Amino acid sequence: MILRSSCPNIPLPCGLRPLLAAMVLLFSLATGAMASSGPPPTIQSVAMLADPGGQLTAKELVGREDAFRPVETRTDLSIGYTGHPVWLRLRVSGGAHGASEAVLRFVYPLLEHVSLYRVQDGAIIEEWRSGLVVPPERRAMAHRLPAFPLNLEAGESATLLARVESAGSMALGVELLSREAFQIANDREMFWLSAYVGLLVALGAYNLLLFVGLQERVFLLYALFVGSFCVAVITANGLGPLLLWGGLGEATARLVTLGFTLSAALGTLFARQFLNTRCYAPRWHRSLRWLLVACLAGMFGAGLLPRRGALQLMDMVGLVTCLSLLACAITCAYRRVPGARLFVLAWAFLLVGASIFALRNLGIIPSNVFTLYGIQAGSALEMLLLSFALAARFNTLKRQKEKAQAQLVASLKTQEAILEKRVAERTAALEVMARQDTLTGLLNRTGLADRAAAAWRRSETSGSPLAVLMLDLDDFKPINDRFGHATGDSVIQVIAGRLRHQIRQHDHCARIGGDEFLVLCEDLSGLEEAEALKQRLESAIRQPIRLSDDTAIRVGVSIGIGFDESRTLDLDALMQRADAAMYAHKRHEQKRSTSP
After folding, report:
1. Based on the domain organization, do 510 and 460 belong to the same domain?
2. Which residues of 312-321 are buried (b: 16+ CB within 10 A; e: fewer)?
3. In the chain, fewer beta carbons within 10 Å around the N or the C end?
């Protein structure tokens, strides 16, 4: 009958199917004696009744066959998110030869509450409970699926009523198996589920050890991603509530949503790190940041929203995450990011499995062995391929690092030569700066001494006289007091520019104090040429200086000349003579300004 299935519940990679088929054949031959004892118990008919108010009881439904709608195909049992209880009426019959012990089980492990009632002669004679949130010790059978034992006499028919209630998607596929067939199917499923969980635990532990040894963050993210996914899957398969956390009760469904949304968030972080989206795909890096925010919002929704809304949000987050990461990986593969091609293949497998899982939860596709366990098969292949991709990426990056180191070593000599050249240039620049006034760019005392020494040597060779002009700005302090030192510095810079513009090409101008300047003149024809330069400087300096607020100020100047026609004086002597002449001029100007 279409409602009964005893095939293995986990789809496997194509390469393993022939091997599995051979194993199943040998196992079937080995158990042929048990199977050949007679026809197995069967489900003769199934009918369904929706209970929107959730008020119906089993006693009320006894004898009300007209209230149930017959179920013709397996698709009718894929209800999706209903939000209310659903009743099933099943007619079953025992085997043809002798009494038989049978097991009725629902093939979907995420059914939260399942109550089964046996009806005989218009009365309920037996009642059982099971479901994901029911503690294992209170279930009819301590099994990961809602399963119920039935004792049927030879040829006996029985009527069963089943009330199923769940906040999530409901797939009501049922099967009636003999005790022997149930044990064989259970052993087979537990073997593959254990192998699957063992694979995830091994991959997570291995990559965690790699993180400890290599301190590469990508290995830690992968280990956390695998761990959260493993918790979600073993909860969704009923193994976790059966063996580890059976006392969570109603919170079990929230653990499923929390595990899957957390794995979506960690998978997003892992993809950003693995694909190096910050470098190779900046737009995707920003988009995945928003996807991460959505995943974190889904985690909060797992704890705050009603269970039905949280499960639907989980499905949407899972689908969007898989599609987004696959598109991002395809972009990175096109840009030749190390390991991106394997990442695309791995995420494609998970996308197929997660899509089947989500679409089955939403009731879009029917519930069967492939849709129930497609996510396990897809995720197992994805985890293996991602582990290979991590190794390939690590090796690629290692080779790139070695190549870069070799190139670095090869270019060290060139870089060293360039560095030496730059150091020499910088040293020369510093030497120039050490001889310049930082505010005006004119010579300072050190630079003036160097230029003077060279000028004296040239004077001895050419026989031309030297002259020094000492300049002191008049009434400069009031400018600082009235307008501030910043304005005073600007005035000094303007004066320096005017001096630089007025002196001859082979003269040397220096700033030797706050408002004191010196001009060293060589190759003079006589004192008259020095006097002419003095007049030009006085005229230029006394011109108005316009400030930033359009205020105009004038600066006076006193200039003294130290002239050495005999070429017997050194720089200090000329400076003293010029300084004396400058102060004599300053006193003369002061007397003239105060005389009546």
Report:
1. yes
2. bbbbebbbeb
3. C
